[in-house]
Write a structure and sequence with these properties.
The chain has 15 helices and 27 strands. It is of the alpha/beta class. The protein is globular and about 70 Å long.
Length: about 525
């Protein structure tokens, strides 16, 4: 049993209790550090109570969904804590999302309130809010003021000095709805309970060996679970949480040195990006001893450690599950995701859910021993919930192989999700945008290998008869309708798509062909997609 689970009884595994208990224990110790300011443990508790009061004044009550569209800032974290304090549910939205995706998420979760940065307001122009239950829009950050957006009142978010008592919350109550990429349909809202967040934080901290002497440094976005999980690790252990606005390869080492960081958080593609830069003395002048690095290519792990002195911890978890694989640095095996952690069960199964023998590829299915350590389902999608949790095991959709020593190796995805630069991309959603072009007859979107790690997005397009658009026109069309990371890099025009006898597109044939001499490459042609926060 972990130290955290001994300190927090089952009924106490909520973010409210974590805040209250640790504020009493650590008081004036620094908990949160950002460029905008910092909070001690006690001040963080006070911020949660003030944010809860501000949300209540905006009409939010227990169980209401609050959508947040913002970059990394202290106010984002304050809103998350305020929702937990009030018993409301926070719904973070990727800041690269465009109108159709934002409209879908707001409608699917039934958000009552949207909090958004002023700079991101143009993303709402292509969204139709008229049929949504959204009542109010609050602006967070600089340049805020009273206004109206498509008939909704819009005013500045101010937490103020008022506080409110915490509303009753249980470990199984939903704390967040996190939208994860759909593979054959729209994105799914994962219902994450308070106890799941508690266990994410406890398992991650234990695997990384986090103590109260550590400074946890992340540049990852708060709209993903990783950065919020890092905050939970600091909260549980008494460590300090340093949140930067975004990842910058040129500033990464100097920033880590300035904050005296000891633990860092990297996604797969970030390590190759750092390694692609010229070596510098700063790569050895930091105090980072370990970094969580899921998805880092196995060939990069040892060179990165030799060059920077940082050991990378490979691990596995998903939005629906927890920190399931990866016991610690002393239990690693190159090329694998690690072994199963205590508190979970795992099987590798065939298409009929029969467990396969070690060494044979199958789908990874998982269970948790503790109540509510996994997500409770997909919001408003009972059929998808039953499908994913069939036979009382969560089906990850990941094809893996387990060896005789119990180490799991990732092979590929069962379906069509694409992962690029740490972002999950729904091929279905990209295809829907492409098919909305009036001169596109058919489109298929699929992954091809990246030079760094993970995937690049490729599409095969069939034009309608008489179509006059070219690839540049298509890029401009996509830019206003897709997140920057989802705009295809590779485009190939075909007279028709390969199909089965019943008309289903055979994407495996397109993937096998990959990039050819006839493929248009956005980067090779110097076409740049503007990256927006």
């Amino acid at each position: 049993m972990s130290r955290a689970s001994q300190a927090f009884m089952p009924s106490e595994r909520t973010l409210q209790t974590m805040l209250d208990r640790q504020a009493a224990r650590y008081g004036s110790r620094p908990l949160v550090v950002t460029d905008e300011g910092s909070w001690t443990f006690s001040q963080t508790l006070e911020a949660a109570a003030r944010a809860g009061a501000a949300l209540a004044a905006a009409g939010v009550t227990r169980g209401d969904r609050v959508a947040i569209l913002s970059g990394n800032r202290l106010g984002f974290l304050e809103l998350v804590l305020g929702c937990a304090w009030l018993g409301a549910v926070y719904v973070p939205i990727n800041t690269a999302s465009k109108g159709p995706q934002i409209q879908y998420i707001l409608g699917n979760c039934g958000a009552k309130l949207l909090v958004i940065e002023p700079d991101l307001l143009p993303a709402l122009n292509a969204a139709d809010l008229s049929a949504l239950p959204l009542e109010t829009v609050l602006l967070i950050g600089e340049g805020t003021g009273d206004a109206a957006i498509q008939g909704r009142p819009c005013r500045a978010y101010i937490s103020g000095d008022q506080a409110i008592d915490a509303m009753p919350v249980r470990p199984g109550d939903t704390m967040a709805i996190l939208y994860t990429s759909g593979t054959t349909g729209p994105s799914k809202g994962v219902c994450c309970p308070h106890a799941q967040y508690f266990w994410w934080s406890a398992h991650s901290a234990e695997a990384l060996g986090v103590t109260e002497a550590d400074v946890l440094f992340t540049t990852l976005p708060l709209f993903h679970i990783n950065a919020l999980n890092t905050f939970g690790q600091a909260l549980l252990t008494g460590a300090t949480y340093v949140l930067e606005t975004r990842f910058s390869a040129s500033a990464f080492w100097a920033t880590a040195i300035r904050h005296k960081a000891t633990v860092a958080y990297l996604l797969g593609a970030m390590v190759p990006i750092l390694m692609a830069r010229d070596p510098s003395p700063a790569e050895r002048e930091h105090a980072i001893r370990i970094a969580l690095g899921p998805g880092v290519p196995a060939t990069m792990q040892e060179p990165f450690r030799d060059r920077t002195g940082i050991s990378l911890l490979e691990a596995y978890g998903s939005t629906e599950t927890n920190f399931v694989l990866g016991r610690g640095l002393d239990d690693q095996k190159p090329g694998t995701m690690g072994r199963l952690r205590d508190g979970f069960s795992a099987r590798v199964v065939d298409e009929d859910d029969n467990e396969v023998e070690d060494g044979k590829v199958g789908e990874l299915v998982l269970r948790a021993d503790e109540p509510f350590a996994f997500a409770t389902g997909y919001f408003g999608m009972d059929d998808k919930t039953v499908e994913a949790w069939r036979n009382l095991w969560f089906h990850t959709g990941d094809r893996v192989v387990r060896d005789a020593e119990g180490y799991f190796k990732f092979v590929d995805r069962l379906k069509e999700a694409i992962r690029r630069r740490g972002e999950n991309i729904s091929s279905y959603e990209v295809e829907q945008v492409l098919l909305s072009h009036p001169q596109v007859e058919a489109a298929a979107v699929y992954p091809v290998q990246s030079e760094l790690a993970e995937d690049e997005v490729m599409t095969a397009i069939v034009r309608r008869p008489g179509a006059t658009f070219d690839t540049i026109d298509l890029m401009k069309f996509c830019e206003t309708r897709l997140p920057y990371f989802a705009v295809p890099r590779y485009v190939t025009f075909l007279p028709d798509l390969p199909r089965t006898e019943n008309g289903k597109v055979q994407k495996f044939k397109l993937r096998e062909d990959g990039v050819t001499a006839l493929t248009w490459d956005r980067e090779a042609h110097g076409y740049r997609i503007e990256r927006r926060r």
